[in-house]
Design goal:
Blueprint: H1 2-10, H2 14-34, H3 36-40, H4 52-68, H5 74-101, H6 106-109, H7 112-131, H8 139-158, H9 167-170, H10 173-201
InterPro entries: DUF1405
Keywords: Membrane, Transmembrane, Transmembrane helix
Protein name: DUF1405 domain-containing protein
Length: about 200
């Protein structure tokens, strides 16, 4: 408990914010690079909906920079927390789900890159939960983000521009689509609860 209190106390400290800013910036750059082939094969008008995780971390990177400049943007904050949590959890579940279907076996199918991606994406979700209490987004911003997020899901699985899945998981892309939709709803509800808790404590 003491360690958690110390860690939470770091959230506003400049050195910690700069560390997270650099980590998220580098992760964002790598994320767009990782999506490079899929972006090249996607019709230009849908490209904005393809690189989900790096766009989420980009939102949070900007939020951190604004935080360091003593500025805030409620809309960017809402985009950051909802998408960070959603795609952070989504990626971990997809990797584990894909591994469970791999004929070579669960653990043998997991490479160092899988573990790196799970660690980094879980970190995305944790960041959203850690910083949400410090941010100023309200119902209006969450509603706007909800429209974007659900539209993204509809296009991803309606036009088949979702992040590439393993061949074993691709067979179940309709189930992945439903899981993604319910994860979006869950993410939205979580941060609506944060708003309500903040309202009651103010």
């Amino acid at each position: 408990m003491f360690a958690l209190q110390v860690f939470l106390g770091w959230r506003k400290q400049s050195w910690f914010l700069w560390t997270l800013f650099i980590v998220n910036l580098l992760g964002t750059i790598y994320g767009y690079y990782w999506y490079g082939n899929q972006i090249q094969q996607t019709d230009w008008k849908w490209v904005i909906f393809v690189p989900d995780s790096p766009t989420a971390s980009l939102f949070f990177t900007i939020v951190l920079f604004l935080f360091l400049c003593n500025k805030k943007s409620a809309l960017l904050e809402a985009f950051a927390v909802v998408t960070l949590f959603k795609y952070g959890i989504w990626a971990v579940v997809m990797i584990l789900w894909g591994a469970s279907l791999d004929p070579s076996g669960f653990f043998p199918s997991l490479t160092w890159e899988h573990y790196m991606l799970m660690f980094s994406h879980l970190g995305m979700a944790i960041q959203a939960l850690l910083y949400a209490p410090l941010l100023n987004f309200h119902y209006r911003e969450i509603i706007i983000v909800s429209v974007w997020t659900l539209l993204n899901d509809a296009l991803d699985y309606g036009l088949d521009i979702h992040p590439w899945l393993t061949s074993f998981l691709e067979t179940y892309d309709h189930l992945v689509g439903w899981f993604t939709f319910f994860l979006s709803i869950t993410s939205i509800v979580i941060f609506l609860i944060f708003i309500e808790i903040r309202r009651k404590n103010s």
